[in-house]
Amino acid sequence: KLLEYSAKKVLLHEYDKYFKEMKSDKTIVSHQLELSIDPYNLFHAGIAINYREKKTNPVISKLDESKSKTNRDTMLENLAKSSKVTRKIYSSSEANQSLRLKDLHVARNDIMRPFKKLNSHALVSESVWLREYFIPMEQITEFMEALADIIKKNQVKLLKASIHAYHSEAGLSLNPTFKGEAFAVSIRFNQLSDPQTLKKTEDWLTQVQGAALTVNGTYRLQDQTTFALSKFRQANKKFDEVFAAKKRFDRNSVFINPF
Q1: How many alpha carbons lie under 13 Å from residue 112 in its C-beta half-sphere?
Q2: Pairing mode, strands 45-53 and 2-11
Q3: Which residues contact 222 (CB under 8 A, 6 or more apart)?
């Protein structure tokens, strides 16, 4: 079925209230808050993008790849966003573009097109890193303010930041252990590959992990390259249970991990 696009600017401190009101609209099948990456006013607001299901006959998605971002497009955009001034310009431009879109109807598969080819980069010495954190809904403002402080203090070249709802099913795994809904916060940033910069990144990412844990949140284990065992246990409530199962079923340690 066709989905109808809509967008609205929402201030961060009003987002929890907006989200609760938005959830009552049962026609909305997809929602995401695209956050401002303006380094001079980081995360103060975002563009809430919603897709509502329209009562139409089923349609076949016809993706036009020519309209998708190419590797070259993404490389140029990432390079431009390496400057504070251009990040501010890009953030404002992208927000205005999202708000200007009118009478847009797309098939469900089409809404995934903007997320293609996110990790291309023009330089061998740099790469694009993605990290995701899971935060209780009532704590989202506190966490985002802490995240903004850490990013500004460490002069992180942020490329994109967004929030969407996350629903977790209980199970024996090291996935986020929320029972029910939380907010998933995703950040994407440029990362230099020299040892000194990598060490600095390790330090500030550890701070972000701590900020998530402080508000009873957690983080996606697969995204994290470094973590302390104490934080790992705190973020993954079933740590002992999972590794007891591993010891039972993997007696020869075919699968290994840092712990």
Answers
A1: 5
A2: antiparallel
A3: none
**Is 59 exposed, middle or buried, given 0-12, 13-18 or 19+ CB atoms closer than 10 A?**
middle
Run of H or E including 200:
helix 195-214
Q: Which helix (H) or strand (E) holds 34?
A: strand 28-35
d(CA 66, CA 224): 34
Q: What is the CA radius of gyration of the chain?
A: 20
Assigned token pair, 228: 């302390």
The pair of three-digit structure tokens given for residue 157, joined into one six-digit string: 């070249």
Cα-Cα-Cα-Cα dihedral sign, residues 219, 220, 226, 228:
positive
pLDDT in tens, 62-84: 555 555 555 566 666 666 667 78
Structural contact between residues 177 and 49, judged by C-beta atoms closer than 8 angstroms:
no
Q: What angle do CA 228, 188, 68 make, to 5 degrees?
A: 145
Query: In 3-state terms, what secondary structure has residue 5?
Result: strand
Whether 85 contacts 32, CB under 8 Å: no
The residue count of the chain comes to: 259
Kind and range of the H or E run holding 10: strand 2-11
Do residues 67 and 114 touch, judged by C-beta distance below 8 A? no
Q: How many helices (H) and strands (E) does the chain have?
A: 7, 8
Report which of 161, 159, 130 is spatially closest to residue 34, judged by C-alpha positions: 161
In the block, tokens 């139409």 appear at 56
Which SS3 state, helix, strand or coil, does residue 114 take? helix
What is the pTM assigned to this prediction?
A: 0.78
Of 1-5, 101-105, 193-197, 221-225, give the lowest mean pLDDT range.
221-225
| CB within 8 Å of 196: residues ≥ 6 apart | none
